[in-house]
Structure formats: structure tokens, C-alpha cells
Amino acid sequence: MVSTASGPFNIAHRGASAYAPEHTAAAYELALEMGADYVEPDLGITKDGILVVSHDPSLERTTDVEERFPDRFSMTIVDGKPTKVWWIEDFTLAEIKTLDKGSWFDAKFAGQKVLTFQEAITLVRGKAGIFPELKTPGRVRAKGFDMEQAVANLLEKNQMVGTTFEDRPEVYLQSFEEDSLRRLATLLPTVPRTFLIGTPEDGARWLTAAGLKEARAFATAVSPSKRLILADPAIVTRAHAAGLIVVPYTFQEADEMRRFVHEFKVDGLFTDNPDRFPR
Ligand code: G3P
Ligand code: CA
Predict the structure, then answer these.
(1) pLDDT tens, position by position, 222-244
(2) Which residues are part of the catalytic machinery?
(3) I need a labelling partner for 114 at 20 to 30 A (CA). Which of 29, 30, 44, 164 fits?
């Protein structure tokens, strides 16, 4: 059995995102007040190479970019349809900082800004750990952006490589992309990494005993969607036997979190409602 020193951990998914606009200072501060062990920053990269915090690799869902920069979109195919998107990497940090990231959620959050990764680190450090996810690193690599190196540089600058906070790793990296995790394992071998597994197809590839053993070469944890564990709770024991901890996503209800922690014995979980995490 692989386990953490301090018991199951509570990761605030995009901050306390059930209550405040995801990935804003308001959501992160609330997560800290609610006692989260980790805050999760999802990462994108700007035109001028600055890591910023956003779940989506484009800006239109959670900011007013469409009104502010109506002509700066690209066309891409989403769900089989041509769609306008405002990619983060097509904007400088100065441009992104003019956007409102709070009003889409509730008018009372108007004026919340897109945070840089550095601002997120500064906000959280000393109060919780961070669980950063590199979003679409292969897509931006093809456009000339090295997100893994940028993450390594910033963690090194902040002296957060191989550090602990409250008996746990202070930083836990995540990606859905095997190549990105392999690169992070080379750049930051002492920083643990979880492999996100979202689909039944990827589960069939990676969550068998053989697949988990293979994943252990570049990851220290797996993070299946909770649906994959509900369909096959033995994933948890197989992963533990392979030397991987298990950190599924994404939870809202206290009863379900309790079941995963106490019955399925997961090591931590991502939740939009960190106040409901079972202690
Ligand atoms: O990173 C865990 C979970 O956040 C993965 O899903 O889409 O919310 O980033 P997503
Ligand atoms: Ca995420």
C-alpha cells in the first residue's frame, strides 16, 4: 500500500470553484479558508511566454475577451463545427491582464483578473501546496512554446523543487499527456507527477496491471476520472501495487468523497467543494 504521510488530501479544483469564478484570487483564497491541502492551477502560456492560470487553453468562456478583442480569434473545429476561439498564446500578458475573469460567474466578482502562475504561487505558498496541470502542452509545443521548461524555470526560481509542505510534496504536477510527463520527469525528477486518465479507452490502455507498471516509469500517481473507478474500483489496489498513488477527479458531493476515501481508499481527490472533504 502506497500512502501519503498525512492521510488523504483535498485538492481545490480550480480553487473553490463551486463558489467563486475558477482560477481567480477569490476562488483560491476561499479554497485556503476552507482548508484545502492543495490548490489546483491549470496552466496556459502567453504570446510573451508567461505562464498564466486558466482551465481552457482559450479565453472566451471565462473572460470578456470576445467583447474586448472581437477580431483576435482563430477558427478551429470543436465537436465537428468551425468555432471561433481566442487562444491564450495569441495574447500578451499585458492584454490578458485587461480582461475581466469574474463577471461570467457572478456580477459580484467583476474585476477578478487572470492570474499568472507566479501570482498563484505567491497567493498559495505557505498556506497549502499546489497541484499544477499543464494544459495542451503538445499543442502549444507545436507552436514553439516550451511549457515544461517554463514550469521548471518558475519552480526553480521559487525554490519549490523537491520541497514539502505539511509532510507532503509542496508541488504535484499533472498532465493528460504522456510525452509531457516524460519530459517533466527528466527536467524535474524530484517533483511528483500524476497521469490524468479521462476516457474508457485510455483507462483500458493504462489502468491494467501492465499499463500501470509502464506508467510508473514516468509518473508517481494516476488520476482517473471518478467514473472509471466507479466502473472498476480494483484500479486503486492495482495502482497501489504498481507503486502509484491514486488521485481521482472531480467531486462535488460529500457522500461520494467519503465513499472514495473510506471505501475505495484513494489517496486524495480533486473537488470543487473543498469545504465538503471528509476529515
Ligand atoms: O486535473 C484534474 C481535473 O482537473 C482534470 O480535468 O478538465 O477539470 O482539468 P479538468
Ligand atoms: Ca485540471
Answers:
(1) 999 999 999 999 999 999 999 99
(2) 13, 55
(3) 164
- Residues with Cβ within 6 A of ligand 1? 13, 42, 55, 133, 174, 196, 223, 249-250, 270
Give the tens place of pLDDT for each residue, 19-56. 999 999 999 999 999 999 999 999 999 999 999 999 99
CA of 11, closest atom in ligand 1: 2
User: Whose CA is closest to atom 2 on ligand 1?
Assistant: 249
pLDDT, position 279 = 83
Residue 247 Cα, ligand 2 centroid: separation in angstroms?
12
> Which residues place a Cβ less than 5 A from the ion ligand 2?
42, 133
Q: Which residues contact 260 (CB under 8 A, 6 or more apart)?
A: 226, 229, 248, 251, 266, 269
Distance 132 CA to ligand 2 centre (A): 8
3-state secondary structure the chain: CCCCCCCCEEEECCCCCCCCCCCCHHHHHHHHHCCCCEECCEEEECCCCCEEECCCCECCCCCCHHHHCCCCCEEEEECCEEEEECEHHHCCHHHHCCCCCCCCCCHHHCCCCCCEHHHHHHHHCCCCEECCEECCHHHHHCCCCCHHHHHHHHHHHCCCCCCEECCEECECEEECCHHHHHHHHHHCCCCCEEEEECCHHHHHHHCCHHHHHHHCCCCCEEEEEHHHHHHCCHHHHHHHHCCCEECCECECCHHHHHHHHHHCCCCEEEECCHHHCCC
Say yes or no to pLDDT of 262 above 80: yes
Distance 249 CA to ligand 1 centre (A): 7
pTM higher than 0.85 for the full model? yes
C-beta separation of 246 from 267 below 8 A: yes
